[in-house]
């Protein structure tokens, strides 16, 4: 049985440019919003916005979402490095626009929070991530305080899960097409 696609069958073009441009745009958005948030909100009481739907405030997070793994910042940094390496490994095989956007969002978020873990206090691999958006109430009362990088990871992850559930593979094939190729008799 052959697992290779038919060499005469045209393959979709690679989508590296989509992934990289998505990652650059959302990484830049994360970086800029953190700089602005720190300049405008540091040392201030939470700022109520959108009728109390959103509160803006600086929270320095040593852990992951929901304050998981507090005190294990170096482990979270290594996980983020692993995510970046895995995405770079997939890059040459990437032929799905949806997967490119999803992976670009995850890459942007991983790098955005990784930059904080490397360059913010208390030091390299131990730095605290700057979060500044709290939903429905201040101080993360109802939902953890987050940033653009966190949002990018969540939205990218959801997109990847949905694409997977719908049978879309990162290499541009559909799961059912892949199964047909794998079960087809070789000549």
Summarize the structure.
This protein is mainly alpha-helical.
Report on this structure.
It comes from Kibdelosporangium philippinense. InterPro entries: Peptidase_A8 (IPR001872). It is found in: Cell membrane. It is built from 5 helices and 3 strands; from the N terminus they run H-E-E-H-H-E-H-H. It has a 3-stranded antiparallel beta sheet with strand order 1-2-3. Helix 1 (16-41) packs parallel to helix 3 (97-119). With 187 residues, it is mainly alpha-helical. The model has no long low-confidence stretch (mean pLDDT 88). 50% of the residues lie in helices and 10% in strands.
Protein structure class: mainly alpha
How do the strands line up in the largest sheet? 1-2-3
What's the average pLDDT? 88
Q: What is the string of helix and strand elements?
A: HEEHHEHH
Overall geometry = globular
Give the helix level as a range of percent: 40-55%
β-strand amount: 5-15%
Number of helices: 5
Uncertain parts: none
Q: For the CA atoms, what is the radius of gyration?
A: 20 Å
The biggest beta sheet, please?
Answer: 3 strands, antiparallel
How many β strands by DSSP? 3
The termini sit apart by 9 Å
